[in-house]
Amino acid sequence: MATKLKKTRRRVGIAAGAAAALIALAACGSGTSGTTNAATSTPAAQTVAAGQTAAELIAANADVNVVDSSAWDGATPTEVSLSGTNATVTGDNATSVSTSSDGVTTISAAGVYRLGGDSSGRVVIDARDEATVILILDNVTIDTDLGPAIQVDSADAVALVTAANSQNTLSDASSYEEDADANAAVYSQADLTIAGTGELTVNGRGNDGISSRDDLVIASGTLTVTAADDALVGKDAVKIVDGTITLNATGDGIKSSQDEDDTKGFVWLAGGSVSVTAGDDGVQAATDVAVTGGTYSVAATDDGMHADVALSVDDGTIDIAKSEEGLEGFAVTLGGGATSVVSSDDGINAAGDAPGTETDSTDEATDESTNASSDPGSASYSDVSAQTVATEDSTGDSASQQATADSSNGQVQADGQAQADGQTPANGQGDGTPPAGSGSDNGAGGGQGGPGGGPGGGGGDEADGGQSLTITGGTITLQVGGDGLDSNGSLNITGGTTTISGPAGSGNGALDANGDFTVSGGTLVAAWSGDMSISPTGQAFVQISLDSQQAAGSEIEIVDEAAATVASVTPTEAVKAVFVSTPDIASGTTYTAKVGDTTVGSASA
């Protein structure tokens, strides 16, 4: 049966003065560090509450429709044996299955159907609007040039269930007409659930891998998707419950695109083990991304995870080994789990226009109805399956991103020219020395929003755009080429352990906020070039300008007057400054930075 998980509607406010145009200014980074186009009009720009947990986002969003195992457990399925363009059908619902001369097998009634065999045709579900249809995939291969391998035209909900110990492959046509609606290897107009204990390989040769115009839920099983555009698309919502999932896409890895209802268009990552290699965003949502569990390995050409509204992490393990910006949203909250980011630009970025703002710019994440094959600049499926993804650099020039298979786990890893997975981002000078006149404070200081760094907040003359970046818990490790923590609005830290390495060059800082910057708990440690330094209010801190540049891989210890270590950091690139704020830092105390037995700097908190 299709189970509806009850939610309550999101509550948002109307921003005061929203009739004026909003401009969400980037923080001090250069290039594409969160800068967005000016809005032409904002008749009802909405405020987004800072610090919302992932659980709160989920509660505020729409129902997620899941077909649970009670719909097929114990059922006697109608058997559908596929061979070429033919099908042999036996069982109670045999009269509800028909096959046309061109190899299209149509299922027209609710029920449980077991598919097996090899087909060069297609399977189409065209049932009543209230029907729930279960397809048990039991060693079935569909390789067609007629369109989607499985297409749902009409039903209430559909589940694809992989049988135990089965291996199944679904491959679609290599191209679609530009205006084709059904343009994925698995395409559904109804809510779609993927489940089971077997294996499913989906080859989206013409456009997307698996696409639902409603909700898409991955409940269990082993799933591998390769797509010429997006791998997984649920227009209203995508939910990952469990499973072992490998996604390789020229476009986005996981995407929800509904932007006309603020309770839809979200991605809920609740469990499983997911590996994503993407030529665009690893995860992209028109509204929210909520992470409540699971393990996620992402290598993306653009953002690792991007939400147009709110992105919140309550639990789980996130490893973004390659990205332009690791996590990005208008309101970003990290409250638990472990998050690791390697980024060529900002590590975590609160940026973008307020929800409800109308802009001249077109969202880079196009609707899933757009075909990759209709875009002359898009990579072909052969590029993706050969693991060579065409990408664009910041100038718009085409570049080639070579992906290589990790023989230890079979997962595809991106290896971009500018930044290989897990390696220091190629951005900035790289020598750790700020240029003359860069605005860096080469002195030392600290305190509680105190001397040596100026008042809380930053970003020069840039305005607070209403965005928020909140850290209440978890372990966060950032290796960045741009800003480490960057908010075009407020930056508030109340807990957790955050460690930042980089940037090495000028024009960016480890910490950046256009609005209030407050630390009232947790541990925050950063090592970077020393450029663009800002200071928080609240918890005491110390910022030390090092006597000499310290090489990448040098462990820098911060010790107090009793020689007790209060923090340490091992930067992945050459650095010239260290920032530390922990509950153990005491105002008025002198702290010393040491590399081995050598003192390399000191300052008073």
Main traits of this protein?
3 domains, about 600 residues, 14-stranded mixed beta sheet, mainly beta
Number of domains: 3
The span between the termini is 61 Å
Structural class: mainly beta
Taking all Cα atoms into account, the compactness measure Rg is: 26 Å
The strand line-up of the biggest sheet is 12-14-17-20-23-26-29-32-35-33-30-27-24-21-18-15
Largest sheet: 16 strands, parallel, barrel
Provide the β-strand percentage band.
Answer: over 45%
pLDDT < 50 stretches: 3-44, 360-370, 373-378, 388-418, 426-444, 448-460
Helix content: under 10%
Mean pLDDT: 83
User: What is the 3D shape?
Assistant: elongated
What's the total number of strands?
A: 55
What's the tally of helices?
Answer: 2
How would you describe what is shown here?
The chain is 2% helix and 47% strand. The protein has 605 residues and is mostly beta strands. The protein has three domains: 1-7 and 56-229, no CATH class; 235-240 and 252-361 and 384-391 and 401-423, no CATH class; 445-487 and 496-604, no CATH class.
